[in-house]
Batch of 2 targets.
Target 1
Amino acid sequence: MGEREGYSGAQIALHWSIAGLILFNYLYSDGMGRAFDASLEGGSPVNPEINPSIHVWVGVAVLVLVLLRFLVRARSGVPAAAGAGAMRHAAHWGHRLLYALMVLVPALGAVTWFGGIEATADLHSLLANALMIVAGGHAAIALFHHFVLRDRVIVRMLRAR
Ligand code: HEM
Ligand code: HEM
């Protein structure tokens, strides 16, 4: 994988649109368990809490955009993780963990929903919670860089280079 000075405009657009859609789907998920049970029993999955099609298709969009992001990343490369030594190592593995969860969460949702498989339902919800915790830590670290360390890490994800 190549290395460059900053993220491209496409990478920045993908980062923020994926983050927004993940947050939306996390907040718009109450009632999905009930919707899934109803669809397994052959009834209508729509219930007063949720229109499951919205959760399902926003989630599928996340999966497609993450795969697109890998393609863009492979073609245009990424800047080296910020910092040095152990910090750089931590950023590198933190981002890998985020990517793994960004694929696993919607993929497990799709296996559950389209496959009608109950066994993956809880893991989907559990990993969605893990994703929000890791992404929350990630956002907190980004803000720490900006307001405490006063470096340009956030600017890297705002301005294309
Ligand atoms: C980034 C994407 C996603 C996030 C953050 C997310 C988040 C969540 C959360 C937090 C729940 C638990 C809701 C609750 O029971 O209170 C849930 C449930 C569920 N989601 Fe997703 N989801 C995503 C993508 C998907 C996709 C792509 C599908 C299907 C194609 C899907 C299908 C389901 C189903 C079927 C359940 C119910 C599981 C159960 O029976 O407990 N999700 N999701
Ligand atoms: C669900 C929410 C989010 C997810 C899944 C996510 C995911 C990621 C991933 C995987 C990377 C690594 C990019 C790469 O090198 O290929 C990244 C970079 C970055 N993210 Fe996020 N992010 C989220 C939200 C946020 C938020 C809210 C902020 C700011 C407050 C933020 C700030 C950054 C910054 C500054 C970088 C660049 C780090 C660097 O240059 O080394 N992210 N994000």
Target 2
Amino acid sequence: MGRVLFRGGTILTHDANDHVIPIKSDLLVEEKVIKEISPDIRLPAGSDVRVVDCTNKVVSPGFISTHQHLWQSLCKSLWSEYTILEYLCLGLFDNAHHQPSDIFWAELGGALEGIDAGTTTVMDHAHFHYSPEHSEAAIAALEASGLRAVFCYCPSSRLQKHHPLEVDGDIFCDWSMNKIKDLAQNAPYGDGRVQIGFGLDEFRFDRDTTVKVFKQIKAYGIRHVTTHYFRSPAGAKDSRLALFDIYGIVDPDTHWVVSHATNPAPGDAKLLEKHNMYMSAAPSSAMQMTMGHPTALYHRTEDFFPRASVGADSHAICGSSLPSEMRILLQDARAQFNDSFVEQWKSPVKLNRSVEDVFNLATVKGARALGMADQIGQLKVGLAADIVVYDGSTPALYGGAQTNPVTAIVMLSSPADVELVMVDGIIRKENGILKDVRTVPKDQRWREGASENLTWTEISAKLIEKSNTMRERIHSVDEQQMRKDVMQFLRVDPAVVVG
Ligand SMILES: [Zn+2]
């Protein structure tokens, strides 16, 4: 691994109050960590060091997506017109079309899309476990991808037959709980990059059952939990955070990320604070799917900002670029705030939120949400070398990158401007191109004949082939019948569905 010297860039550091301080400096990486940040670092002659010229470049902390479903990358664009109800009827059980080898390629594709866009850490909400092999394939892909991840194994109801609809709701069955235990006790994976967490979306069991499961999870050594929560006419009306509070399942040593927290109930923000939980805003999916405006940066009565982070959610809905999600989140928060004045025919003197606020959700606050602030989230000596280099001379970034580098990233950039990405001291994207991926011999069972060393061209060819197959499988299902059957299965009140 050796040493890498980022020479002469604009380094985005953070002060103790979370303010971003851009400095002209060098940054030295040794093995997996940031060893030194100072101007004009001199190394002894003959030193084995790789120098990256960062003239006119912006060196940023890698981005942290605290809510994402990497397995959904073979369903790209399929859910971009869905409401939450349509997703529940037509998308939720698309996991049933995935064999373990599909999951391997889907997770690899999702992880690499993130790295390409500057994402270096993902909390992966994984709800596709139809067999123990499904999770093994996912872990193998995460190891190969180079991404840092908290793989949250989410047991969920398994579709057995489309029509008549048959669903296996025994989500805490022996093989599944044994697999979680096995994965957790053998963790971490990928040279320490991949940890095991737990996900749960189905809180339909009684208190004793739920409490018992969370005790088991703790006994397995799992310290990360995630769940979806939003109030919706098509779903739950009650506060799930209040339920967690009553059940007493939030362990103080466990890092909880509650995804969305949209249309919140009164007191929800205080419950996050009380239990030291964080929320993850996923603006594209929430705003599209009738789940409500994101709450991370603005809400009329509750303040979620102290406990907020951001995620890209679903590849089947939107791209996984976090700067893109940051931009949507920021402008929506500003629009809601501005509207609250305009409704009274007044005009605010200033905007309510800044690009720095939203940039921090994907960096320092994302790290806090995962309980990893001592490892990732900022460019600081001693922290892991998770680094993104933006080319400040591209058509999108020139001028902005030199004047307001954080604004340039949040408001102007796309993944095409990301020149280099390093995760855990290893360069995974260079000169704007993803580096080859090395799998291991035991992954052969998932690769389906593909070679051990994979170029992006080979990977994308396989992903296109698999996406085509997935689309055919999904479109072979009778859509109208599924809408009817799943509505009944989920006990959605037809009276709330209009249009
Ligand atoms: Zn989600």
